[in-house]
Design a protein that fits this description.
It is an enzyme of class 4 (lyase). This protein is of the alpha+beta class and 962 residues long. The protein contains 25 helices and 38 strands. Bound molecules: ligand A1D88.
């Protein structure tokens, strides 16, 4: 064995292979990993390096791994065919087949090129699973899977791997190669050949292999995934046999491409003397004979080829959920495999596949890796828990049901995702499901297997790639906002909630259509007092070139929180920083990152709820400053005060806060529910609280021209909030005119696709204004066609959803029933009590109620004036959903957003057709005829063509509303 290798040793090899490698000075993560011999927990472990594990962290770590799979055949059959070759080794490894014959020592040397080390290994009949200082290596007879994180140089392993495969296994040609990775968190830290996807990694692979295809999958301005794969070389079996007599030296025929001279994989100088303490357990890997299971595996032919790999790549991990992946201070010894095994159980990873054999490791001071084997399959988990770069990956080739609702044999993809994310509680995650093509499979099931049924997460993307021999589904998920979820699309939103830690004020929204253009400067909020400029420079410097950094108020705003301003040389860099760090963590503190807004004239912000305080900025400069400078300072100060208020709000109660500049920038008017001990100071500017009203309703001072309602747009949804709290939103004529005006505006606004009408928690609306009506005469109401203008809502062609809490009585009930869909809170009270006032319902109550609930019930309600509950209303079909009080508006907006994302003319046709059905003006036959005409009419729309085409092409439609 030694002779064979030695005979080919080229003394200059290291130079050749490492010709492009940067020095270790650039290698920041792990300096030194040593394994305590006590950590060997099973006979399968071969690691036995002295001392405890020590990892030096530089404050951030590139968790996302590079993943390489090199296949020398479609199945282990390739290995058995080559088994009788003249393997000259003397050891009993010759009893194994294919790549599994290769001694650990050679993998170790290959991994040295990559810059990682073997920690331990477990084996079964099918595969050897090596746990590495940076992730994992799986060696099957016919393929090798290598996954490495940090700044490792994974691709540099390939020439050495090909050499090993040729010399030890007579594999002279690869069948397929797969290389993939998620977008790096800190791309600038990467070393050659991983500094750039296209120019380095793809080029490197293209130089090695023919027929390679490279992809970027997903949003290039968010979390995307890179993939490189070669097409199958189906002559590989023939080729291996044909080259049976080829001497066991490396030649350029090892790959499917002739390598350029500088890539010829010359063997490195290899010390053939095994380390004294490393390969002690080598013999334990041996098996005397091939077991029946191995025989089964190796006789699988290419025609039966099946392969499936899922990766779940998670970021923004919940800090408390990943605490367990830290070494505890309580025990000095707590690192290594022993505590890895403890964490398997504590985290629930051991329960993912109860029959699996796990090999896990807890790093010092934190970080965790695990390999697990289940027959011929594996799963592997790697965790980087540090808040500044939190990341966890799960990868497995254990088969999953690709039918989304299959409960028969194995877990569905969704089941697995739910189990995995419940352990790490990520803020975002991407899933890649890579499965060999099966002509019998219904692609819709495959796509649907990555569905929307992940609770608390919203799926952002789902992409199907039909690759050569494989189907790939990529999907990206992000956690829903916990508080009111207006945050989904805030492009036109005009107020924001303090309790929503990851939302941004609209003026600083990244995508805000009405927002000013973002600068290259970003704000980072909620920093702890421990954060220094150097610290920020280090973390944020990875996203680009920082031209200016300012930590102006790392003082006691409140609870040691502060903000920083970071300016990048380009907008792209700033965008990247915001996209990565917003919602991320630093020193355990959740961050909010946003662009510094341009604010020469702030966007109009209508009042939404309650006014509690008004802040007036007064400048107190020691020295007189010129006006321009003064102005800039005020803008800056106002921004800081705005941020500071968030901190105050976060420390009080669940608050809503609207901000707006009044009187140029000198006055900052704040609407806030409840604030205690507000004392704010900014650099050179004192902020004074001049009036504090407290947490009472009814003091709202509308900023828009409306006196009785509030309006705000949320993406494609227009929201109208009835706002006469003192009168329980009684529907005065003035109020109804305002509703009509707002409806008209939304009807004419092409950006708006659906409308939501709501009130307060206490009252949707307590009816027409009795005080206004009390003294009216018949002549007056008749001549003026009193309430005639209430019919306007029925002319609105866009869908209207009522979100009802509290009282919906009389005209309030009628208003709700005039909407197209009604969501109600559990405590909502409906009724037509007019009879008790000596009148009858006058805005459609008797008609709509009768059509909705039938004559008898309608009579009971109208003639007795008794109220009815939300639950009754739902049972009778007046209400479509009953929800907890605090969910009603959120869910209504969610539904409205869903509807608004569809083709507007088609939605309007649907509304018109349903309304005709409920009007009872038409017979069933006439109604169906009307519906059919409208249906036929949709074929005149471009959206009809697009919708159907998109379905056939298995993609999301792009509506043009034409
Ligand atoms: C075509 C359409 C016709 C109609 O809609 S006719 C009107 C039908 N509606 C009703 O009959 C309901 C009238 N309101 C009530 O019965 C009660 O209210 C409630 C049961 C809804 C709530 O009772 P509680 O919690 O005790 O509050 P509170 O003190 O009665 O009301 C708070 C303030 O709200 C004013 N208010 C309530 N409903 C109306 C209304 N429909 N028109 C004018 N004002 C109303 C009150 O007067 C009072 O105000 P202040 O504090 O100044 O006395």
């Amino acid at each position: 064995m030694s002779d064979i290798i030695d005979s080919n040793v080229n003394p200059n090899t290291n130079d050749i292979i490492d010709s492009n490698i940067n020095t270790d000075a650039n290698y920041p993560k792990i300096n030194n990993i040593n394994i305590n011999t006590n950590d060997i927990i099973s006979n399968d472990h071969i690691a036995s390096i002295n001392d405890t594990a020590t990892i030096n962290y530089s404050g951030f770590f590139e968790g996302p791994e590079k993943l390489l799979e090199v296949w020398f055949g479609a199945s282990p059959a390739i290995a058995i065919k080559n088994r009788n070759h003249d393997y000259s080794g003397n050891d009993n490894r010759s009893k194994r087949i294919g790549l599994r014959q290769v001694k650990t020592q050679f993998w170790k040397e290959m991994l040295e090129i990559v810059k990682c080390q073997i920690i331990s290994v477990i084996s079964n009949d099918y595969v050897d699973a090596y746990l590495l200082s940076e992730s994992s290596l799986f060696v099957y007879p016919h393929k090798l899977i290598l996954k490495t994180c940090g700044t490792t140089k994974l691709l540099l392993a390939i020439p050495q791997l090909l050499k090993i495969a040729a010399e030890h296994c007579h594999f002279y040609k690869v069948w397929r190669v797969f290389y993939s990775r998620k977008r790096f968190m800190f791309p600038k830290q990467q070393l050659h050949p991983h500094k750039d996807w296209e120019n380095e990694e793809v080029t490197y692979l293209d130089n090695l292999f023919d027929n390679g295809a490279a992809y970027i999958v997903g949003r290039i301005n968010a979390d995307y995934w890179n993939l490189y794969l070669t097409s199958p070389q189906d002559d590989v079996l023939l080729d291996h046999q044909y080259q049976h007599s080829t001497p066991a030296i490396i030649t350029t025929t090892t790959t499917s491409k002739t390598l350029p001279p500088h890539h010829i994989p010359e063997p490195p100088i290899i010390d053939m003397h095994p380390p004294t303490n490393f390969l002690d357990s080598e013999e334990e890997l041996e098996q005397d004979t091939l077991s029946p299971t191995t025989m089964k595996a190796i006789t699988t032919t290419a025609s039966e080829f099946q392969d499936q790999t899922i990766e779940i790549l998670m970021t923004n991990l919940d800090s408390s959920s990943v605490q367990k992946f830290y070494q505890s201070n309580a025990s000095n010894n707590e690192a290594g495999t022993k505590d890895g095994a403890r964490i398997d159980k504590e985290s629930g990873l051991a329960n993912l596949y109860p029959g699996a054999k796990l090999d896990s490791f807890l790093f010092t001071p934190c970080g965790y890796s695990a390999n697990a084997l289940l027959d011929e399959n594996y799963f592997t988990v790697h965790v980087t828990p540090e808040p500044s770069c939190s990341y966890a990956s799960f990868e497995s080739n254990i088969p999953l049901s690709l039918h989304y609702n299959d409960s028969s044999t194995c877990s569905t993809v969704s089941d697995l995702i739910r189990n995995v994310i419940s352990i790490f509680n990520p803020g975002k995650f991407s899933v890649t499901l890579f499965t060999s093509t099966d002509s019998r499979r219904d692609k819709r099931h495959l796509v649907a297997s990555l569905g929307d049924d992940i609770v608390r997460f919203v799926r952002k993307d789902r992409i199907l790639y039909e690759l050569d021999g494989y189907d790939l589904i990529f999907a990206h998920f992000e956690k829903k906002s916990r508080s009111r979820s207006y945050s989904k699309s805030r492009s036109r939103s005009l107020s924001y909630s303090r309790s929503r830690s990851r939302s941004l004020p609209p003026s600083r929204s990244r995508r805000g259509a009405s927002s000013p253009a973002p600068l290259t400067k970003i704000i980072v909020e909620k920093l702890t007092k421990n954060v220094t400029v150097a610290h920020l420079q280090e973390i944020f410097g990875t996203f680009g070139t920082i031209t200016h950094i300012d930590l102006p108020i790392n003082k006691k705003w409140n609870a040691n929180r502060g903000i920083a301003y970071i300016e990048y040389s380009t907008r792209t860099e700033a965008e990247r920083a915001v996209s990565y760090m917003d919602g991320g963590q630093l020193d355990g503190t959740e961050l909010t990152c946003a662009f510094v807004p341009r604010r020469p004239s702030p966007p109009p912000i209508p009042a939404r709820r309650r006014v509690s305080i008004i802040l007036i900025f007064t400048t107190k400069y020691k020295q007189q400053q010129d006006t321009a400078h003064h102005h800039v300072d005020l803008v800056q100060a106002a921004t800081e005060a705005e941020l500071a208020l968030q901190f105050v709000a976060a420390d009080t109660q669940d608050l809503d806060l609207d901000l707006r500049f009044v009187d140029d920038v000198h006055i900052l008017r704040v609407r806030i529910v409840h604030v205690v001990d507000l004392e704010l100071r900014t650099q050179g500017v004192e902020v004074e609280v001049t009036r504090s009203v407290g947490a009472t309703e009814g003091t709202s001072e509308p900023v828009s021209s409306y006196k009785n309602i509030l309006i705000e747009s949320n993406g494609k949804v227009g929201l109208i909030t009835l706002n006469r709290p003192k009168a329980l939103n009684a529907l005065s004529s003035e109020l109804f005119h305002e509703i009509n005006d707002a409806l008209e505006k939304y009807q004419n606004d092409p950006e708006i696709g659906a409308i939501v009408i709501t009130g307060s928690d206490r009252a949707f609306a307590a009816g027409a204004d009795i005080k206004e009506m009390q003294d009216k005469t018949f002549a007056e109401v008749y001549k003026s066609n009193f309430l005639g203008h209430w019919g306007k809502i029925n002319e609105i062609r866009k869908p209207i959803i009522a979100a009802v809490n509290g009282f919906a009585l009389g005209g309030g009930c009628e208003l709700a029933m005039s909407c197209d869909i009604v969501y109600a809170g559990v405590k909502a009270t409906f009724g037509q009590p007019e009879i008790k006032l000596g009148v009858i319902p006058g805005a459609g109550g008797t008609q709509r109620l009768t059509r909705a609930i039938g004559k008898s019930k309608a009579m009971e309600i109208v003639l007795s004036g008794r109220n009815f509950t939300a639950e009754e209303a739902e049972r009778w079909g007046i209400v479509s959903k009953v929800l907890p009080v605090d969910k009603v508006l959120e869910e209504a907006i969610n539904l409205a957003q869903q509807i608004a994302s569809l083709s507007q003319p088609v939605v309007q046709a649907g509304k018109e057709s349903v309304n005709n059905g409920t009007s009872f003006e038409l017979s069933l036959k006439e109604g169906c005829h009307f519906e059919r005409r409208l249906f036929q009419g949709t074929f005149a729309l471009r959206d009809q063509k697009e919708g159907m085409k998109a379905f056939i092409e298995k993609r999301e439609p792009k509506w043009t509303n034409e």
